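This part of the workshop introduces the protein records we will be handling. The structure tokens are whole numbers drawn from a learned vocabulary of backbone shapes. The record below serves as our worked example for the rest of this section.

===
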Amino acid sequence: FVIQECCVQNTAREYAKIYAAEAEPLEGFGEVPEIIPIFLVHRPANNIPYATVEEELVGEFVKYSVRDGKEVNFLRRDSEAGQKCCTFQHWVYEKTNGSLLVTDLQGVGMKLTDVGIATLAKGYKGFKGNCSISFIEQFRALHQCNKYCEMLGLQSLRATHQKQRKATSLKSKNLPNSSTIKKAVPKKARDPRGFISSEH
């Protein structure tokens, strides 16, 4: 678990660095959230041989998003840090074609720690997150773009989501009628409960 925690936070930190490189030069964008590094320490003589070490954040600790994505959109959207965290989530989502989302954005001011990452079931470029895929779905449904999303030229998720729904409904019109499907697909295979993936 400790190794995964380091891997997740430091992966999110790498995305945050790329985000900063794109956002900071934009006129009027200002300071960009930073995910602080976390280090793994091996202590062979100790009962608990692995520990993590990171910078101490002093000041008011704020959760800019909770794992399901609701808080960042509704409770923290008025603060500059909250809006920029929300934009960071949108930026990562777009950069990874909806395959990865940084969640649990929290910290002091623009310095963030203890973040999570949600990925699609198969992961993204060999990386699997530590949060449920449902966080990606909820973010896509709940995210409200702000001025920082606009500055970065991010596409509205509402428009993208509706395009996907239209494409799906067009595809379904081209499918054979339901009686053909019933004959071709065994009943057990059509049961949606069979497609629930386990979370680790």
In short: The CA atoms of residues 94 and 154 lie 7 Å apart. The chain has eight helices and eight strands.
